[in-house]
Amino acid sequence: MKGVVFPGDRRVELMDFPDPTPGPDEVVLEIRASGMCGSDLKYYRAPAGGGTAALGFAKGIQGPVIRGHEPCGVVVAVGRNVSPRQARIGQRVMQHHYRGCGVCPQCATGWMQLCDEGVDEVYGATGHGAHAHYMKCPARTLVPLPDELSFETGAAISCGTGTAWGALHRLGLQGDHTIAIFGQGPVGLSATQLAKAMGARVIALDVAPERLARAREFGADAVINPKETNDVVGAIRDLTHGLGAHLSLDASSSPAARRQAVQCVRTWGKACYVGEGDTVTLEVSPDLLRRQVTIIGSWTFSTVGQAECARFIADRGIEVDRLFTHRWRLEQADEAYRLFDTQTTGKGVILPN
């Protein structure tokens, strides 16, 4: 089969790999949709020869890794120890793209990325991912895809949309809240869409006019371009009767946006960070202590949360497929990532089969 790899320096190659065969506790998926996520770009942009460990992961396979960590497809093979309750041939599934020990308290509750023994594999980073015709993974990492949802929606939930869902729940979002969402890339735009479905008022921020226009389409009540606004925090306060937002979410990874995300919330407010990397500098007393502000870090979601997100979207008929502005064949991966690297477009998805 063919699989997409990143040799480094913004290059993409389509390489030949053996078709996978499941081990005793594993399954093989025929990939129907493999989403493109902003966190893929750190591997795409990495220097050639840096290796996976140099990108932050100490464990994993040697040699070229098939990329793509938003898998969705159909089970086509099962190992001998896999019960029908875990997986069956023909089942439509998403995949939780981490493998931990499987028995510690974190793994047992579906948080395999927080495994007490250290995560063994991150599919698409240290283990073969979903930018290929087939993918092998443990049966315990599968999450059923509701019949009402497309494979593309399932791919979005498998990371970007699921990450937004997890962050909104960590924040305790309610329908009477106003939330400021910094960054309207795939995760931020998903947060805008979900927050509106939960009844909240959304203030969307981004430096790209194209992304702000998309946020409007997805229900944002107000939009702010920090490049065109001298006082972002003041602008948010003006939209909230001088009080500030109840909640904020940073999906941009920008140090300035992270600082503003804390400063823009009202007394007793909460700010959540989901964007990976970089730093933030805060004045502890005025920004935090003397306003009783809570800062939350949120890293993706559990298998339970992934299933709950899918059910919420199915029950409310949320059009997650609208996130995708570009659909690509496997052999178009180079063109796909060159466009995605501009970070001005919407979400892309690769359709291998």
Structure description:
Strand 13, helix 8 (255-263) and strand 14 (265-273) form a beta-alpha-beta unit. With 353 residues, the chain is α/β, with parallel strands linked by helices. The strands form 4 sheets. Strands 3, 4, 5, 8, 9, 16 and 17 form a 7-stranded mixed sheet that branches. Helix 4 packs across helix 5 (186-197) and helix 4 packs across helix 10. The protein folds into 2 domains: 2-159 and 301-350, Medium-chain alcohol dehydrogenases, catalytic domain (Quinone Oxidoreductase, Chain A, domain 1, Alpha-Beta Complex); 164-297, Rossmann fold (3-Layer(aba) Sandwich). The chain starts with a strand and ends with a strand. It is built from 11 helices and 17 strands. It is globular.
DSSP strand count: 17
H/E series, N to C? EEEHEEEHEEEHHEHEHEHEHEHEHEHE
Count of domains:
2
Round the Cα radius of gyration to an integer and report it.
20 Å
The structural class is alpha/beta
Number of continuous helical runs: 11
Output the keywords.
Alcohol dehydrogenase; Quinone Oxidoreductase, Chain A, domain 1; GroES-like_sf; 25% strand; 11 helices; 7-stranded mixed β-sheet; zinc; Rossmann fold; 353 residues; alpha/beta; 2 domains; ER
Secondary structure layout plus pairing:
Layout: E1 2-8, E2 11-16, E3 26-35, H1 41-44, E4 71-78, E5 92-95, E6 98-99, H2 105-108, E7 121-122, E8 134-138, E9 142-144, H3 151-157, H4 160-171, E10 178-182, H5 186-197, E11 201-205, H6 209-217, E12 222-224, H7 232-238, E13 245-250, H8 255-263, E14 265-273, H9 284-288, E15 294-297, H10 303-316, E16 324-328, H11 333-340, E17 347-350
Organism: Caldovatus sediminis
Keywords: Metal-binding, Oxidoreductase, Zinc
Pfam family, one: ADH_zinc_N
